[in-house]
Design goal:
By secondary structure, the protein is α+β, with helices and mostly antiparallel strands. The protein contains five helices and 18 strands. A seven-stranded mixed beta sheet has the order 2-1-3-5-4-6-7, covered by helices on one side. The longest helix is centred in the middle third of the chain and has 13 residues, at 128-140. It is elongated, with a radius of gyration of 20 Å.
Length: 281
């Protein structure tokens, strides 16, 4: 069993929440390797956390335990769960935060975290990350059998992000805004077949690949201060002047809207959930 636990939360780093969770896990297994993927998910933004996990899980070694806490329903009837999928394990609230990754991997097995042995003696109403999820994740690195965690359940699955191909248009939405203000969209994944041609292998919705001449593609997004014109697809930031907007295929293979050495989301008033449109010629 791997000793790696990856943490993905909306807790931020100003308060003690993340540090306390790490303390709980290290008290259970001092040999752990704890990896902070990010704690900067927008508060209670389950879809953003789900998309972040989708674009990250495959880079971690087999048997990594992903501790994912975005939990606006803490204290409600939502279940705490562990999930086994592919080569990895996941511990999270059963609110859909794992759903994009689980669809991508396929054939998940989920169990409700029921047993007192795998949680702290006292469980608060507001901090299940410390009291339930962190202990369960640590115990999973000590060869606790998945079959002994609790009853099997069907995990809650979020609806897929928007990705629709209609005629000469591909329509999606902004799923993430990164530290640089780049708007990462649901339109992906793209592969560059040649300098002038892209293939879109849709990650959501339809599964029909789409061949796209790069020079004829133009992207636009619903924004408070929309860019003056549709944005052509570029290979790199350096293809436009400093301060100019552009569209490009990011490292995740998804369409991204950015500003060369600037903040696209701030400059144009773009938020997560904003509709995005890609015109094919």
């Amino acid at each position: 069993m791997s000793r790696v636990i990856e943490l993905l939360t909306d807790f931020g780093t100003t308060d003690t929440y993340v540090g306390v969770m790490k303390g709980v896990m290290l008290d259970i297994n001092p040999d752990l390797q704890l990896v902070d993927l990010t704690h900067a998910i927008q508060p209670q933004n389950i879809k953003q956390a789900a998309f972040t996990l989708l674009n990250s899980y495959s880079f971690f070694p087999p048997q990594t335990v992903f501790l994912v806490v975005g939990d606006p329903g803490v204290g409600s009837s939502r279940k705490p769960i562990a999930v086994r999928a592919g080569h990895w394990m996941f511990v999270a609230p059963d609110n859909g935060v794992l759903s994009y990754a689980l669809r991508d991997i396929g054939h998940p097995e989920a169990a409700e975290l029921e047993h007192q042995l795998h949680r702290l003696k006292t469980v608060s109403n507001t901090f299940h990350g410390r009291d339930i999820f962190a202990p369960a994740a640590a115990h999973l690195t000590l060869d606790v059998s998945f079959d002994h965690l609790g009853r099997r359940v069907e995990p809650v699955m979020l609806p897929e992000p928007q990705l629709v191909i209609e005629g000469n248009y591909v329509r999606g939405e902004v799923l993430h805004i990164d530290h640089f203000g780049t708007a990462v969209t649901s339109i992906g994944q793209f592969n560059w077949d040649s300098p002038g041609q892209l293939t879109l292998n849709p990650r959501f919705g339809t599964t029909r690949p789409l061949i796209c001449p790069a020079m004829s593609l133009e992207a636009s997004v619903s924004a408070t201060n929309s860019p003056a014109s549709r944005l052509s697809i570029r290979h790199t930031y350096a293809e436009v002047a400093q301060g100019e907007p552009l569209a490009l295929v990011g490292s995740s293979g998804h369409l991204e809207l950015s500003v060369n050495q600037g903040n696209f989301a701030s400059k144009y008033g773009v938020n997560i959930g904003a509709p995005v449109e890609l015109r094919l010629g």
